[in-house]
Each structure stands twice: as C-alpha cells, then as structure tokens.
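Researcher: Let's run the pair from yesterday's discussion. Sequence first, then tokens, for each.
Model: Starting with the first of the pair.
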Amino acid sequence: MNQHSGHTSENYADVLTSCKREKFLFENHCERNSAYALHQPVVTYKTSAKLVQNDFVMRITVDTASITELRHLILKSCGDLVLFMRVKPIDHASKMKVWLCLSKSSVDIIISHIMRALPQAEFGKITPLLAS
C-alpha cells in the first residue's frame, strides 16, 4: 500500500466526517434551490441591449415612369445615407410606392435631393423603424 505523508485513510475519514457536518453539501437539491437560492443575489453576465432609435422609414410615391430616375438619384447622391430601399407597384402599376430606410440626420438631405429632381413625388409618413 502506497502511503504518502499526511494522506492516510484515517485522514480521509476525518475529512469526510467533517464534510458531512456541512449541511449544504449533502442536502436535497430541491431544498438547496428553494432555501439557499432565495438569499443569493441574481447575477447575470449578459447586458441588455439598449435600443437607440436612429433609423427611420420614409415613404415616397412616384409615377412609374420616374422610378428609374428616383433609384439613380438615391444611389448617386444619397447611396451612403440609405440603408435599404423597397419598391412596390400600386394603382395597377401606374404609381410606385418606395420605402427608404435611413438615419434621422439624413432625412432632410434626401428630401431636398428628391424634391429638386422629382417635384411630382409625394412624400408620406416618416416613422421609426423599431416600434417603441
């Protein structure tokens, strides 16, 4: 039998006996969750995301004949300010509805560019992208 100094079977028995006196090591798991956990602080490691509303959706309606010009205008002069653009035909394709996702700071710039190039464009609501 290989015995190291300080590690005899008697020492292990003493340690085991002293551990049995520590109730939390041998108590029922349900009891530990209900009694012990109630007094412990809740610690989370994830921080909740803070939503900052910077993106808005602007609605524009133009004639079907002007949609190509509007697309070129947006890509040429405002392409870096627009996050996405959606186009949908309406009124039996005589008009096109356009949704632009953009930052709040770029709204005035884009409106001025569009009004200069397409004065017949109809501007709709400008709403936050995320529901608050």
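Model: Moving on to the second of the pair.
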Amino acid sequence: MLIKALKKALPILVCFGLFIAIPMNSQATTKVMWGKTELKLGQIGKVTILADTPLVKMESNGTLSTVRMLKKGDEYRVYSYKGQHNGLYGVGGSSFVQKNTAKVKYETPSKRKLALVTPKPIITTPVDPPALEVIDIQ
C-alpha cells in the first residue's frame, strides 16, 4: 500500500522539485521591435534588402561563396562588420551580406531603442545594521 502511494506521489514531487529549481526571472522581458525585426542584445544594426542580393559565407581561403539569395524587403539583424571584400555585415551563423548601397541599406538603432534592451544594473541601497542597545544587568 505504501509503495503504491509512493509511486503516485513521486512524479508529483519530481515536478514540484523541478518547478522550484528553475530560476524565475522577476523582470518580465518585453520585445523591442525595430521595423520587422526584434532588437536583440549584441545587435549593432540591421540591413534592409533593397534588391535581391546573395547571403554569403567566407571560406577558409578567404573567398566568398553564396549560401542563398535574400529577397527584396527582408530585414536582418547585424552583429558584426568586416572590412574585407569592400565590407561585410555579419548577420549570424557565419553568414554575411556584402556592403552595396544600391542593394542593401544599413542602419544602427537609436540610443533610445538600445536603452530598452540594455540590461539595467541592479542597484542596492546599503542598509545600516540595527543599533544595539546595551542593557546593564546587575
């Protein structure tokens, strides 16, 4: 009888333990939209595709190979920039969009938008310890 009760209670206890062990974020994160894309931490800008343009990868010998074509009107987050090959915008996953003002528009986020995704430092106010009262016992 006790074993049957333990078999039924064990999954509930395990779920409860996992629920307690998973840290809960007290600050709800809100999405900060910038055009068609969500602004992410670490993002330095975005590219808007003005005309179909290739998404490229840099090979080990320094040449570029086309991964696929990006369509006009699409927007992509930019996380890095390389000066090679007349400029490459790093869009993640070791993929790049070549700098070309006729086909690609690059923008940086405003300071106001950046402030919305930058983590705020947690400032704690120091608390003085309670004063000790000395009582003379005789």
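Researcher: Give me one sentence on the second I can quote.
Model: Helices lie at 2-21, 111-117.
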